[in-house]
Specification:
The protein is mainly α. It is built from 19 helices and 12 strands. Strands 1-5 form a two-stranded antiparallel ribbon. The protein has a two-stranded antiparallel sheet with strand order 2-10. Helix 9 packs antiparallel against helix 14. The chain is globular, with a radius of gyration of 23 Å.
Length: about 525
């Protein structure tokens, strides 16, 4: 295993490790007789799970830029000629939207990779293995269980018709796929309920947690750990509405994991190319390598670089001209500038025109974003998180190396605060909100300060919501999940995002979940479309 999950192969998915393959004369053909039969083979199947997560169709490029960031209006459209992208920006998704289909397929490929690993572990010949090898197989099982649960959780968050904490557990979720076997029946599965999906995810997480170490050595940084799984169990219980269970397990992570909030000096660079990778706040992150392009360009051919940065790349001054640092399709939504106000995190989440950066080894300044529509009133700031400031994606063939965080301690703090607030403990909720807030203002996190939130009741709820927005804007799926489970999307569209450069936003109740892709509806006669979509 290369250091820090350096994945140089894409996932090789099999119908089942127990199924028979064609008996061909070529002895090199993969079959249950020759694959997997070694521990190296098993390691490749473990690596395949991570390879699918960083694939171009997920966090290698599209998971956020053609998913949550567009739907929650972290970004606005600098390029408006892609109809599916523009419809997404207007919250007008339809089943034939290509971005929806891409995400659906990509998450299920993570499920498939995890199931392949788990099935092969069950059928792997263990006679003669050392204790060390048996322990490693057990760890692999924990990894497979975690990633299968994680992928199903992402799927039900996007496509499930609600959250259990809102009483929507009996509504339609997504099909649970628990075996690598691609039989006609498994490919034509009905949708499970939201509750059924959450129950299975929780089972996978609980079965994984004791199989994984609390930390890995430096040669395996980036693998899922006990504390990553514990954090997701806390999140899942929060979404289920089990406040006490969520509180207990998140507090366990806070008290026993050893993770800490980074000081502001490190936090302000946590999301650009000056980041400290695998830092003491990061609980689970995806590792990427700058310039890794085995296919010659970008990360299409199994690269361990990411092209997410290329879609949000800043524009910069080049003599008297303005140049794009990459594809530069998406820029920071103007309304978010006003929404942040004077909060210091604005300059972490966004890059203001005039900011000093380095391009091609020379100092220059970020320019107002180039737009494909005439809009002189648009401020044109760039997204700050996961955007390099000492090079631009075009310099490295779009192959950027900024790591992307899936879980960090600040999220655990604010989830814990929410669980406390839901359970009636305002004092503890305020303190953990303020710990995160103090760090953002470069204050000691354990000492009361002049920027502390002191509200209660509904005002405290609103403060928590805005604190989560400001802490996680431009970072991941957090804000999209928040507005959907809180059912505040309509309020946000009215107050902050009534329009985009692609057109006005339009709200319907079913905008809180994505439509089942048209391709899935056509290929699976058992599939039922979500309420509201045709």
């Amino acid at each position: 295993m290369k250091n820090k999950i350096i994945v140089f192969i894409t996932a090789v998915l099999f119908s089942s490790c127990a199924d028979s393959f064609l008996d061909l004369s070529d002895s090199s053909t993969l079959s249950p007789d020759n694959f997997p039969v070694t521990m190296d083979h098993m390691e490749s199947l473990s690596t395949a799970c991570y390879a699918q997560v960083i694939h171009i169709n997920l966090y290698g490029c599209m998971a956020l830029t053609k998913g949550a960031f567009v739907s929650d209006h972290t970004v606005d459209m600098a390029w408006t000629t892609d109809e599916h992208w523009s419809k997404q920006a207007q919250n007008q998704l339809e089943p034939n939207n290509g971005n929806v289909a891409t995400l659906w397929d990509a998450y299920y490929k993570v499920v498939s990779a995890a199931n392949t690993l788990l099935d092969c572990i069950d059928n792997f010949k263990k006679d003669g293995l050392t204790d060390v090898q048996l322990k490693r197989l057990s760890q692999m099982k924990g990894e497979g269980l975690f990633w299968r649960g994680w992928a199903h959780q992402q799927l039900v968050q996007y496509w499930g018709e609600g959250y259990p904490c809102n009483g929507d557990g009996d509504k339609l979720g997504v099909p649970l796929r628990l075996s690598a076997s691609m039989t006609p029946a498994s490919l034509k599965a009905k949708r499970n309920t939201v509750d059924e999906v959450y129950s299975q995810v929780l089972t996978d997480y609980k079965n994984a947690v004791d199989l994984l170490p609390e930390k890995w050595d430096d040669s395996n940084l980036g693998r899922s750990t006990k504390w990553a799984v514990q954090s997701y169990i806390g999140q899942l219980n929060l979404y289920k509405g089990d406040w006490k269970a969520s509180k207990d397990i998140l507090k366990d992570v806070i008290d026993k994991s050893g993770y800490q909030l980074l000081p502001f000096e490190d936090y302000k660079n946590m999301f650009n190319d000056n980041q400290i990778k695998f830092n003491k706040e990061s609980i689970l992150e995806l590792n990427f390598i700058k310039g890794h392009t085995p296919g010659g360009y970008g990360n299409w051919a199994g690269a361990v670089s990411q092209m997410h940065s290329s879609l949000i790349a800043h524009c910069y001054r080049y003599g008297r001209d303005t140049k794009q640092g990459g594809w530069s399709n998406l820029f920071f939504h103007d309304s978010n500038i006003e929404r942040f106000g004077d909060d210091p995190r604005l300059k972490i989440c966004a890059i203001e025109p005039g900011t000093e950066v380095i391009v091609e080894g020379k100092a220059t300044q970020v320019s107002r974003y180039l737009l494909d529509v005439t809009s002189p009133e648009t401020k044109g700031w760039s997204v700050g998180k996961y955007n390099p400031v000492t090079y631009v994606p075009n310099e490295v063939k779009l192959a950027c190396g900024i790591n992307i965080y899936l879980m960090r301690l600040a999220d655990v703090y604010l989830m814990y605060a929410e669980a406390c607030l839901r359970d009636g403990d305002e004092s503890t909720a305020r303190e953990y909100i303020n710990k995160v807030r103090r760090r953002a203002y470069d204050k000691p996190t354990e000492v009361a300060s002049d920027i502390d939130i002191t509200t209660s009741g509904d005002a405290l709820w609103n403060d928590l919501r805005e604190e989560r927005f400001k802490e996680f804007c431009g970072e991941g799926v957090q804000h999209w999940c928040d507005v959907c489970r809180w059912k505040t999307l309509k309020d946000e569209l009215v107050k902050w995002y009534p329009k985009t450069l692609a057109g006005a936003t339009i709200y319907d109740d079913y905008d809180l979940y994505y439509p089942i892709p048209l391709s899935e509806m056509q290929n699976n006669p058992e599939m039922v479309q979500s309420r509201g979509y045709k």
